[in-house]
């Protein structure tokens, strides 16, 4: 079969590899679509190898069950689904509480095994997955379903954790209207009555934000925090979702979140927000605000996301590429010209 593999730091190749074998608890999935996440670019740019042998990339996977391990119950060959990306231990206290995204077996600052980031992923004709990770999608289009695995999952998790702030009349800020951000705006519209302010650096991204239901679009710049304060009667936004995570956006979040507000860091740009203790006065961190570094989501968050897509509350703007053209898709994502999500189809 064909697989998009990271063979050396910075080197991506479409290679012929054997179809994976499966264990007793696994499924073999015939891939229908695999999304490309900005995190994949980060992985390609790592200066060292994640593992010695070439790694098949892809953690946003939708497809059809091709074969079933001997001990698997409850699934049939031909079932269509999306793959939950936290391949957690399933037995620790966090997993038992449904918080598989912060599985104890992963260690304190690491993340649970994720396809395409350790185990082989789904940018291929076939992928092996633990049966526990399979979430049915009914007749949902694969190109729409694959981005549920991360675009929707990680956005939904961050938003669900800020429900207390997102009361009717509240304001939510979405920074970065790419794959995750454009889905986050729709999730805010579908699950809260908050007014959504979208922030990005490009006019086309802001036009996408408007189509997704944002009410106010702001081009990111030195005055953005002041503009958000003005739009919220100098109080600030009840929740700020940062899907970029660089110093500039972290500073924007610190300077525009409301007292008792929620700042959710999802983007992994290495930004360091300045949170200082002590009475502030001026543009610093307000009383009562909280920050969460948000990773992925729970399996139940994925099931909710799929339900929202199936009931028509969630759409994904995607650009389709043949699997063989993966390098072109990566280049376009890096150049910032993808609107919504780039999706590879085998
Ligand atoms: P993307 O490339 O599709 O979108 C990023 C968007 O941010 C683009 O629209 C870009 O124009 C915009 N942007 C860039 N710099 C900006 C700035 N200074 N101000 C405002 N907007 C800016 O990326 P994506 O796939 O949506 O991923 C977003 C981030 O989230 C990445 O850092 C990715 O690694 C991370 N991520 C985190 C998790 C998690 O669980 N924490 C999950 C998936 C992705
Ligand atoms: Zn991702």
The proportion of residues in beta strands is 25-35%
Radius of gyration: 20 Å
Tally of alpha and pi helices: 10
Small molecules (ligands, ions, cofactors) in the structure:
nicotinamide-adenine-dinucleotide, zinc ion
**Which fold name is given in CATH as the topology of the largest domain?**
Quinone Oxidoreductase, Chain A, domain 1
Structure in words:
The strands form three sheets. Strands 3, 5, 6, 7, 8, 15 and 16 form a seven-stranded mixed beta sheet that branches. A six-stranded parallel beta sheet has the order 11-10-9-12-13-14, sandwiched between helices. It has 346 residues and is α/β, with parallel strands linked by helices. The model has no long low-confidence stretch (mean pLDDT 97). It folds into two domains: 2-150 and 296-345, Medium-chain alcohol dehydrogenases, catalytic domain (Quinone Oxidoreductase, Chain A, domain 1, Alpha-Beta Complex); 162-293, NAD(P)-binding Rossmann-like Domain (Rossmann fold, 3-Layer(aba) Sandwich), CATH 3.40.50.720. It has ten helices and 16 strands. Helix 5 packs parallel to helix 6 (203-212). The site of zinc ion has 4 residues, from loops. Zinc ion is lined by residues 37, 39, 59, 150.
Reconstruct the topology from this structure.
Elements lengths: L1 E7 L2 E6 L9 E11 L1 H8 L9 E2 L3 E9 L11 E4 L9 H4 L29 E5 L3 E3 L5 H4 L5 H10 L10 E5 L3 H13 L3 E6 L2 H10 L3 E4 L4 H8 L5 E6 L4 H10 E9 L24 E4 L5 H12 L7 E5 L3 H9 L6 E5 L1
Parallel strand pairs: 9-10, 9-12, 10-11, 12-13, 13-14, 15-16
Antiparallel strand pairs: 1-2, 1-4, 3-5, 3-7, 3-16, 5-6, 6-8
Helix pairs in contact: 4-5, 4-9, 5-6, 7-8
The structure holds nicotinamide-adenine-dinucleotide (NAD) and zinc ion.
Zinc ion (ZN) binds next to loops.
């Amino acid at each position: 079969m064909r697989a998009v593999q990271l063979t050396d730091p910075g080197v991506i190749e479409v290679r012929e590899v054997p179809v994976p074998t499966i264990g007793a608890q696994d499924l073999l999935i015939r891939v229908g679509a695999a999304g490309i996440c900005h995190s994949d670019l980060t992985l390609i740019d790592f200066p060292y190898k994640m593992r010695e042998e070439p790694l098949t990339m892809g953690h946003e996977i939708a497809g059809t069950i091709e074969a079933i391990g001997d001990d698997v119950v409850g699934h049939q060959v031909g079932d269509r689904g999306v793959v939950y990306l936290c391949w957690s231990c399933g037995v620790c206290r966090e997993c038992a509480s449904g918080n598989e995204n912060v599985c104890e077996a992963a260690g304190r600052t690491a993340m649970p095994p994720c396809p395409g980031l350790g185990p082989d992923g789904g940018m291929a004709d076939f992928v092996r997955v633990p049966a526990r990770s399979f979430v049915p999608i009914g007749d949902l289009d694969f190109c729409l379903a694959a981005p549920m695995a991360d675009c929707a999952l990680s956005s939904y998790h961050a938003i669900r954790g800020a429900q207390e702030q997102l009361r009717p009349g509240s304001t939510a800020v979405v920074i970065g209207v790419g794959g995750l951000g454009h889905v986050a705006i729709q999730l805010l519209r579908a699950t809260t009555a908050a007014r959504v302010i979208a922030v990005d650096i490009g006019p086309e991204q802001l036009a996408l934000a408007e189509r997704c239901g944002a009410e106010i679009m702001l081009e990111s710049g030195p005055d953005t925090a002041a503009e958000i304060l003005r739009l919220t009667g100098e109080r600030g936004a009840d929740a700020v979702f940062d899907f970029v995570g660089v110093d500039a956006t972290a500073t924007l979040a610190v300077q525009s979140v409301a007292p008792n507000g929620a700042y959710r860091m999802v983007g992994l740009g290495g930004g360091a927000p300045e949170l200082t203790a002590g009475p502030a006065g001026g543009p610093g961190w307000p009383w009562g605000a909280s920050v969460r570094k948000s990773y992925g989501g729970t399996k139940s968050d994925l099931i909710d996301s799929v339900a929202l897509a199936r009931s028509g509350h969630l759409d994904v703007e995607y650009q389709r590429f043949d699997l063989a053209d993966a390098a072109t898709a990566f280049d376009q994502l890096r150049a910032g010209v993808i609107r919504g999500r780039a999706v590879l189809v085998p």
